[in-house]
Design goal:
alpha+beta, TATA-Binding Protein, 3 domains, two-stranded antiparallel sheet, 34% strand, YycI-like, Regulatory protein YycH-like domain-containing protein
């Protein structure tokens, strides 16, 4: 055996292994850095309050502040719109993770399903939840399309059928930034040890048994690891906590 050649092969093999391990470590560190939210958008005093109250923010803090207007909506067919409807042919529930295929599979039963977005933080062990979209982009929270599944098949659904109206009298206004909304929550509303897991901009719609038009305003939704949720209205800055059914300024 040529020991000199074998030694060189081993050296090259170890060098290659070190390069692979080094690249993997760099990738892991980069992925970890990308997954950590940037808290520099929060004011320094808010960061200090976070530390004193042991509050953690695991979600990315959005930087966009689009101009949106208030809208109104009304329920169609009253309570009949929320009845449970069984699908004639169950649909494989794994399609929920591929929205285009899901829409195609359920379009015959739900022609408007393409106007909804899946909410990964809502629902339960047997129910997927989707929300209607305003302008094809912003979810209307609290208004739901529930997809019920059993044995990995979507077998039925329950839908809040609504009509969305946009008044020409309502002017577009720039929404409150997510850092400011979050800062208000951290300082005045979030309990000690709270962990924020999701921050998303949409519309907050309240559910009433009414045939009249109901108002909905742009709002930031903040979800906590505990399951609690807070909404900060993007125009007025009012804080709504459905957990306590209170609205506070």
């Amino acid at each position: 055996m040529d020991w000199g050649r074998a030694k060189n092969v081993l050296i090259y093999a170890f060098l290659l292994l070190n390069l692979v391990l080094g690249y993997q470590l760099w990738s892991d560190l980069r992925e970890q850095a990308d997954s950590n939210p940037d808290l520099t958008s929060l004011e320094s005093n808010i960061q200090k309050i976070m530390e004193s109250k042991r509050i953690k923010v695991l979600a990315q803090i959005p930087s966009d502040t689009p101009q949106l207007r208030k809208i109104s909506y009304r329920f169609v067919d009253g309570q009949q719109s929320h009845k449970l409807v069984h699908l004639p042919t169950p649909v494989d529930s794994k399609l929920i993770f591929t929205p285009k295929e899901l829409a195609n599979a359920l379009r015959s039963s739900l022609p408007d399903i393409g106007d909804y977005r899946y909410d990964e933080f809502a629902g339960s062990e047997s129910v997927f939840v989707m929300h209607p979209l305003v302008d094809g982009k912003w979810p209307l929270f609290k208004i739901n399309l529930e997809l019920h599944y059993s044995n990995q098949k979507i077998v039925s659904y329950r839908q809040d059928i609504i009509e969305i109206n946009e008044s020409a009298d309502e002017k577009e206004q720039q929404v409150l930034s997510a850092p400011k909304a979050l800062g208000n929550l951290i300082e005045n509303f979030l309990p000690e040890g709270a962990v924020v897991t999701s921050i998303e901009l949409g519309y907050y719609g309240q559910v009433f048994d009414s045939d009249a038009d109901l108002p909905a305003s742009p709002a930031w939704r903040f979800l906590l690891e505990s399951g609690e949720e807070y909404y900060v209205q993007g125009i007025s800055g009012d804080v709504i906590s459905p957990n306590t059914k209170e609205s506070k300024e």
